[in-house]
Amino acid sequence: MAEKNDRHKVAIIGAGGVGATTGYALMVQGIASEIVLIDINQEKAEGEAMDLMHGASFVPPVEVSAGDYSECEDADVVIITAGAKQAADETRLDLVKKNTEVFKQIVPSITEYTKDAILLVVTNPVDILTYVTLKLSGFPKNQVIGSGTVLDSSRFRSLISNHCEVAANNVHGYIIGEHGDSEVPVWSLTNIAGTPLDNYCPICDYNCEGELEGIGEEVKNSAYEIIEKKGATFYAVSLAVARIVRSILRDENSILTISSYMNGQYGIEDICLSLPTIVDSQGVEQVLNLPLNDNEEEAFVESAEKLKEIADTLEL
């Protein structure tokens, strides 16, 4: 990481819907002092930066500009959102080869100017592309992370909170594994105000039988539904990315389900996917091994194996 001071710089590669909205989220929350948008379409980046800066009087002090890859040199965090976006009839994994080729151009352009920044991958399929970024960059494993299932876990909590009519921040639960079709809801550890969900539901006066199981499927399919209805997702994912960046820049040691390199967790190695992880100024501080039940652990391992099969087909 760059030397700590009161100013934090974030470079965002890709000024499309997710990149620009991430800049907006960072700006409104006062997370970064300097935000630079970098895009192959320079005019698009300049226009987004101008639009953001015109709201500077309403937010904490911040500088927003458009630039090129040289702006990564003194960035604390470089966020990668660029790449082909997911079509309504595509899965996230369908994007693998297209976006791997894009990343073969992006990652060396970043590492030409920095070896110290945390690289945060958002582009889908995020787990494979986090792995690709790690291999292409040669960075230490703690410095390369993906947004993973941070958004999925938020969707999970939101749907449970709506069902049980409690605030989402009182629901504690995780989605682990792939950010995609093989993701795993950890029902065995989900709780409301410390009360396991199986114990909470009988006292909440709602009939939960058969309904909660559908929440996991709804989480998995929600992105497809949003893409079908409006063409892309960017608000919630941008808030998720801002949450990750905040934990890095403020050295919070927050536990977030980011995607990172597995090094023996549940017997999984040499692939990136999501588990609750302590995130600080160095990126990954520690990946946590949850006490999963047998079905959850089996599903997590299957998720990892699916990703490894795909990663093994890539030429890196």
TrEMBL record:
Activity regulation comment: Allosterically activated by fructose 1,6-bisphosphate (FBP).
CC annotations in GO: cytoplasm
Function of the molecule: Catalyzes the conversion of lactate to pyruvate.
EC class name: oxidoreductase
Pathway terms, separated by semicolons: Fermentation; pyruvate fermentation to lactate; (S)-lactate from pyruvate: step 1/1
Active site (UniProt): H179
Molecular function GO terms recorded: L-lactate dehydrogenase (NAD+) activity
Organism: Halanaerobacter jeridensis
Name recorded for this polypeptide: L-lactate dehydrogenase
Lactate/malate dehydrogenase C-terminal domain: residues covered: 149-312
UniProt binding sites for beta-D-fructose 1,6-bisphosphate: R157, H172
Gene3D superfamilies per UniProt: Lactate dehydrogenase/glycoside hydrolase, family 4, C-terminal (3.90.110.10), NAD(P)-binding Rossmann-like Domain (3.40.50.720)
Positions where Phosphotyrosine occurs in the chain: Y224
Binding site for substrate: Q86, R92, N124, P125, V126, D127, D152, S153, S154, R155, T233
Domain Lactate/malate dehydrogenase N-terminal, chain residue ranges per copy: 9-146
Alphabetically ordered keywords of this record: Allosteric enzyme, Cytoplasm, NAD, Oxidoreductase, Phosphoprotein
Family: Belongs to the LDH/MDH superfamily. LDH family.
